[in-house]
Amino acid sequence: MLAGREERIVELTRKLGLPLEEAYLGLLKDGSISRDAVVRLIGISGEQGRLDELEKTAAEIARRAPDNEGAKMLMRFFGFMAMAEAGDVETLYETARKWVGNPR
Question: What are the residue boundaries of the structural domains of the chain, listed by start?
């Protein structure tokens, strides 16, 4: 569920006929994006074949604003994807387990 502010931004974006991706990217850039909105942004970018662009954008935001939680979430996602694509399931599992704070 999107936060109230995010929902209003998405609704306004729809009313204006603008791409939803732009609304989510704006939230990402200003550091106010929720986890739900990050998931929606990944979905939209994936559907449009623009995950590479999203990864570059997230990396640039993370470089400029290291405390941006949305950019950090996206960079973790892309890291997990790279491990999965490389077939490194054991490292993927261990990294995900540490990330969620669930030690053995």
Answer: 4-99
| CA distances, 27 to each of 6, 46, 47, 70, 77 (Å) | 8, 18, 19, 9, 18
Helix-strand-coil percent breakdown of the chain, rounded to 5?
A: 75, 0, 25
Instruction: Kindly report the pTM of this predicted structure.
Output: 0.81
Question: How would you class 62 by CB atoms within 10 Å of its CB: exposed for 0-12, middle for 13-18, buried for 19 or more?
Answer: middle
What is the tens place of the pLDDT at every residue in 47-91?
999 999 999 999 999 999 999 999 999 999 998 888 888 888 888
- Which residue do the tokens 């995950």 mark? 51
Query: What type of residue is 30?
Result: D
